[in-house]
Design goal:
Layout: H1 9-16, E1 29-34, H2 40-44, E2 51-56, E3 70-75, H3 78-82, H4 87-92, E4 99-103, H5 105-119, H6 130-148, E5 156-166, E6 179-182, H7 186-195, E7 198-209, E8 214-222, E9 232-233, E10 245-247, H8 251-258
Parallel strand pairs: 1-5, 1-7, 2-3, 2-4, 4-5
Antiparallel strand pairs: 5-6, 7-8, 7-9, 8-10
Length: 273
């Protein structure tokens, strides 16, 4: 006798969860870097609210003090960022926030170095060993990965960092010019570039208005491929090339480009000090 099998309700339930990829809403995971005063924190303030700012030794939030919907937690110890009782677990277990901004990774790396120095009982000025640098790289990569993975809980994640110019090494046969990216250990910088969906470089430029015959200052962000600056936005191939530069960058403009749309030209004004 031929056996017949009934489809389980569990399998039918799994199939019902299938949906078109174009309809899947994915939070933004991003790294933004640049020189001090180029608008990184102000850009972060445009992310969806409520927003939690993890101020890692930066104390530079005056420029967004009048933006509603932002809470701040000052981070002065590595364990506050990545310990058993760290803010990470509060976020992982569920919170009111829609976005988390870490300002900034360069200072977080310094906190990790301080923790290792204490653990190893190193003397002031004692040089890090190759083993210690490797441990620090592992700590940073694990922390960055864990916070990036919070996107699966529905959070938008933004990492901020200062910029660093790296000169080509002798073994870099194909790279003759310097490159500019996040100011982190090279292994950590490469890891960060790979795990986020967007990388932006903030900078300021002067713009001359031919009609008004006036010159003003523009806060900009590089997001398109560049020969020297690390930048990217993952989006549908059919959407064509990514715009090279965004003027007055905002979360909404980044999201529009990710979806293959043209960012709005509406100017967003946030008081800068």
């Amino acid at each position: 006798m031929k056996k017949t099998f009934k489809r389980s309700k569990k399998k039918q339930g799994i199939a019902s969860r299938i949906q078109p990829l174009s309809e899947v809403e994915t939070p933004v995971t991003m790294a933004a870097y640049g020189q001090s005063g180029t608008g990184k924190t102000v850009f972060g303030a445009t992310f969806p609210k409520p927003l939690l700012l993890l101020d890692i030794r930066e104390r530079g939030a005056e420029s967004i003090a009048d933006v509603p919907g932002i809470d701040v937690l000052n981070i002065d110890d590595w364990d506050d960022l990545d310990g058993e009782n760290s803010i990470y677990w509060h976020l992982k277990n569920g919170s009111k926030y829609k976005s988390v901004m870490l300002d900034q990774l360069t200072a977080a790396q310094a906190l990790g170095m301080d923790k290792l120095r204490k653990q190893k009982r190193m003397k002031p000025g004692e040089v890090f060993s190759q083993r210690a640098w490797g441990q620090l790289s592992g700590m940073m990569q694990e922390m960055i990965y864990n916070y990036r993975e919070l996107y699966s809980e529905g959070y938008n994640i933004l990492f901020l960092a200062h910029e660093r110019i790296r000169e080509p090494q002798e073994e870099d046969d194909e790279r003759l010019a310097p490159s500019v990216g996040v100011n982190l250990m090279q292994s950590v910088a490469s890891f960060t570039n790979g795990v986020v969906s967007v990388i932006g470089n903030t900078f300021i430029r002067e713009h001359y208005d031919k009609k008004a015959k006036t010159t003003d200052t523009q806060y900009c962000m590089r997001v398109g491929p560049h020969a020297y600056y690390r930048a990217k936005i993952r989006r549908p191939v059919s959407a064509g090339p990514v715009p090279g530069v965004i003027v007055n960058p905002t979360y909404d403009k980044i999201l529009a480009i990710q979806k293959g749309q043209s960012p709005s030209r509406k100017k967003v004004v946030i008081r800068r000090k």
